[in-house]
């Protein structure tokens, strides 16, 4: 336990600004690693041709959709564990983690079975060409072997972060990324004694790395090396506790799903203005994600700090953490926004030499950067609400601002207000402003403080 204590950040007693940074920085690095993780298969698979690239893209959409639905259970677990840790009830936190882990394994097994039953029909729903469909089925048939392990990894990472330890999840993610990067070319291209498996090899490499990561995670938590211990002694499934976790997790899943649906909708609207606009948005969004890693990491830190301090009855520290997050994010995001505004075209030029695409991407960035600060403040504020356990309120704020504002406004401004594709980008900024305003109003009302978890 000594190593776990060393890695933990005391969010109940440590100085606000420094503890927030210490907790958020490893998570920001984790998001960077995750970004690299998603690029590894694409890098290797691109050597197999355009059909393979299209297959992995469509398959990943299926995997992301399923993961979004399942990962909400992990988010719900983390919120409850953070509250129990703040209350000083470490035993109940461990019991919650144990129950949730078993629940996630059961959920993963059911979802995996359904996916394998539906797998022959998935390419048809995407309207894939026969050669692309063949590649997609080969890839998914191996990839989904690791689905349950992937959900378990997320579950345990959420639990461990909720204790104040953001380093262990980073280590697990880094390990799985390295394993995938090393074994993927051997399985894809048949190097040495390994058979050439092509798309199946890419899926198998990812699945094996996820299984290894899950095994290590379970061992670390089971041995008490990550700040919380699993306890299977006299284990009996607790439906009421799983129901409470589900009540927290289901809105979180819907919230993440709304983000995914909104992004797909924006792509559809942008598609009406030509390939260069879609390509420009894709590259611009990639730049956004690099900036937003800091926002998501800080938001998650605020969420855990809220849960722990609310459990400990230290409400004043919740407001101080929120204020610190806004202050520190403002400095980082404004700086990055200025850099992207001035040098965004040069960054885009690293990925494409097509003048029209560079122009559209630059145009997107010159508008979207004005929404960065609002997005950062909005996310930090919403995470206070979700960290307290007001899951449906948090989901309503997020889904309402993007599906209820961004998406319809993007359609109206681009199609009927004469702004063209720029109307889409204006709508994104306006949606972020609405997110911040609504989240701030909800936070100030303080009803989230009475949420029970």
List keywords for this structure.
single chain; 453 residues; mainly alpha; 15 helices; 0% strand; globular
Walk me through the structure.
- Helix content is 82%, strand content 0%.
- It is globular and about 55 Å long.
- The chain folds into 2 domains: 2-237, no CATH class; 272-450, no CATH class.
- The chain has 453 residues and is an all-alpha fold.
- It is built from 15 helices and no strands.
- The mean pLDDT is 89.
- α2 packs antiparallel against α11, α3 (50-86) runs antiparallel to α4 (90-118) and α7 (147-162) runs parallel beside α9 (199-222).
- It has helices at 2-7, 16-45, 50-86, 90-118, 122-126, 130-143, 147-162, 167-189, 199-222, 239-271, 275-311, 315-348, 355-387, 391-415, 421-445.
Helix/strand-derived category reads mainly alpha
Largest sheet: none
Mean pLDDT: 89
Globular, elongated, flat, extended or rod-shaped: what is the shape? globular
Q: Give the SSE order as H and E letters.
A: HHHHHHHHHHHHHHH
Provide the number of structural domains: 2
Which residues sit in consecutive blocks of at least 5 with pLDDT less than 50?
none
Number of strands: 0
Q: What radius of gyration results from the CA coordinates?
A: 22 Å
What gap, in angstroms, lies between the N and C termini?
27 Å
What percent of residues are in strands? under 5%
As an assembly, this protein is single chain
Give the helix level as a range of percent: over 70%
């Amino acid at each position: 336990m000594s190593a776990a204590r060393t890695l933990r950040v005391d969010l109940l007693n440590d100085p606000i600004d420094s503890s927030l940074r210490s907790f958020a920085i490893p998570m920001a690095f984790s998001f960077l690693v995750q970004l690299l993780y998603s690029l590894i298969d694409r890098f290797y698979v691109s050597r197999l041709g355009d059909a393979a690239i299209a297959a992995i893209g469509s398959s990943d959409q299926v995997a992301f959709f399923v993961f979004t639905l399942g990962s909400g259970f992990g988010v719900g677990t983390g919120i409850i564990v953070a509250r129990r840790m703040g209350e000083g009830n470490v035993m109940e936190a461990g019991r919650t983690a144990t129950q949730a882990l078993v629940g996630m394994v059961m959920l993963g097994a059911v979802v995996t079975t359904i996916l394998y039953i539906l797998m022959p029909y998935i390419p048809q729903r995407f309207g894939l060409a026969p050669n692309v469909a063949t590649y997609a089925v080969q890839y998914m048939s191996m990839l989904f072997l690791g689905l349950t392990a992937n959900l378990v990894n997320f579950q345990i990472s959420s639990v461990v972060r909720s204790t104040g330890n953001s380093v262990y999840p980073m280590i697990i993610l880094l390990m799985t990324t390295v394993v995938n990067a090393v074994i993927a070319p051997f399985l894809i291209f048949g190097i040495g004694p390994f058979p050439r498996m092509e798309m199946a090899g890419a899926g198998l490499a990812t699945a094996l790395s996820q299984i290894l990561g899950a095994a290590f995670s379970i061992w670390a938590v089971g041995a008490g090396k990550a700040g919380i211990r699993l306890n299977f002694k006299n284990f009996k499934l607790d439906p009421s506790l799983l129901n409470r976790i589900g009540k927290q997790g289901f809105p979180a899943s819907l919230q993440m799903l709304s983000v995914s649906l909104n992004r797909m909708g924006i792509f559809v609207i942008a598609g009406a203005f030509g390939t260069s606009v879609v390509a420009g948005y894709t590259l611009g969004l990639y730049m956004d994600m690099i900036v937003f890693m800091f926002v998501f990491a800080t938001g998650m830190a605020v969420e855990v700090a809220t849960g722990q301090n609310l459990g400990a009855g230290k409400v004043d520290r919740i407001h101080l953490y929120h204020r610190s997050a806004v202050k520190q994010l403002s400095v980082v995001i404004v700086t990055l926004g200025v850099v992207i505004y001035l040098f965004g075209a040069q960054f885009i030029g690293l990925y494409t030499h097509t003048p029209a695409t560079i122009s559209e991407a630059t145009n997107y960035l010159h508008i979207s950067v004005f929404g960065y600060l609002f997005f950062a403040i909005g996310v930090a504020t919403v995470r206070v609400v979700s960290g307290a356990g007001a899951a449906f309120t948090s989901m309503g704020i997020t889904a309402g601002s993007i599906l209820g504002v961004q998406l319809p406004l993007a359609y109206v401004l681009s199609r009927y207000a004469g702004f063209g594709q720029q109307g889409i980008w204006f709508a994104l900024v306006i949606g972020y402003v609405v997110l911040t305003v609504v989240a701030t109003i909800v936070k100030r009302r303080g009803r989230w403080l009475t949420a029970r978890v």
